[in-house]
Design goal:
The protein has a single domain, classed as Rossmann fold, CATH 3.40.50. It has a five-stranded parallel beta sheet, sandwiched between helices. It is an alpha/beta fold. Helix 4 crosses helix 12, helix 5 runs parallel beside helix 6 and helix 5 packs parallel to helix 9. The longest helix is centred in the N-terminal third of the chain and has 28 residues.
Length: 324
């Protein structure tokens, strides 16, 4: 009997010491700022960490389709509400969930929008476990930082100071025309969403519900990544989870998308011309469907008019390229 008690005691002691070491290591390895030189990954998406507390009205999540299709500064300039694109290339839904949790540490948006291409990214059980662990123990995400640790990592607290001028959007004036033949041909076939992905979709939904946040699914135009079977798959899961779903691939004529000029890479992603059309339509939809305040005359949001780090020049350039 004493042997078993001793074994249990040693096991518990080992686990507690391991947890303590992981906790200490997590603080040490975690970037102390959200800048590249501090070791932060996915800089544009993590720029939200530097935004003023509770200043973001709409949070966009997803993969590169969201990054290239939704411009928060277009939404601000036309409709006056604030938004941020916490999207990354190839973002799987377990990563989406991690960005959601991280964003809500300092923000309380009233609407969360998921770009649905992320529902069809590959996902594995091991990757899910690692992602979950990194939420609570960042050492699992930043373990490679041992090569670049400085004295500041041992002594400083975590303080985020950097903001992205484009609020997560990836601006591009490149034009490579798309072949839209066969794009969005109606079909009864359903490309079903994988069970683990569906599980994370429910987790995101429950996270939003627990905070009384509206949750919307949106598909942005892409001739290479979207088709009717995927549309049907999202319709199916949206009905099951009772979620609103807006598929902009069905209304490209309404959006006036021109596949000769509005894509940067032959229909895979939109460029600034296409993103402006999508952003303005989506902004109108959001203003009608949700309560979003026009903050353009609010002195607390003057930084959105005069954003730091040379944003004025960049925004003026965009206004010249894409006048209203």
């Amino acid at each position: 009997m004493n042997y078993y008690f001793s074994l249990i005691f040693k096991t518990i002691s080992f686990l507690l010491i391991l947890l303590l070491l992981l906790s200490v290591g997590s603080h040490l390895f975690h970037p102390k700022d959200n800048r590249m030189e501090s070791g932060m990954e996915e800089l544009a998406a993590n720029g939200i960490l530097g935004e003023k507390k509770d200043s973001i009205d709409v949070l966009f999540l997803g993969d590169s389709e969201a990054v290239s299709s939704i411009s928060p500064m277009e939404l601000w300039n036309k409709y006056g509400f604030t938004s941020y694109v916490c999207a990354t290339s190839g973002q799987s839904l377990y990563t989406t969930y991690r960005f959601l949790v991280r964003a809500f540490q300092n923000q309380s948006p009233s609407v969360v929008v998921l770009e649905t291409d992320a529902l069809f990214q590959g996902i594995s059980f091991q990757s899910c476990l690692l992602s979950e662990a990194s939420i609570y123990l960042p050492i699992f995400q930043y373990h490679d930082r041992w090569k670049s640790l400085t004295l500041k990592d041992f002594t400083a607290s975590i303080t985020y100071t950097w903001t992205d001028d484009w609020k997560g959007y990836n601006s591009s004036t490149d034009i490579k025309a798309a072949d839209a033949a066969g794009y969005m041909i109606p079909s009864d076939h359903i490309q079903e969403i994988e069970p683990l992905t569906a599980l994370y979709l429910r987790r995101i939904k429950k996270f939003c519900q627990s905070r009384s946040v509206s949750f919307l699914l949106v598909s942005t135009p892409s001739t290479k990544n979207w088709n009717y079977p995927r549309h049907n798959g999202v319709v199916q899961v949206a009905a099951k989870e009772n979620l609103p779903f807006l598929d902009l691939n069905l209304i490209t004529d309404t959006l006036a998308i021109d596949w000769n000029t509005d894509t940067r890479d032959e229909g895979d992603h939109l460029n600034n011309f296409g993103a402006k059309k999508v952003s303005l339509y989506l902004g109108e939809y959001l203003k009608k469907q949700y309560v979003l305040e026009d903050r353009r005359n609010d002195s607390a949001y003057q930084s959105w008019k005069l954003a730091p780090n040379g944003f004025i020049a960049g925004y003026q350039t965009m206004c010249v390229l894409f006048p209203y």
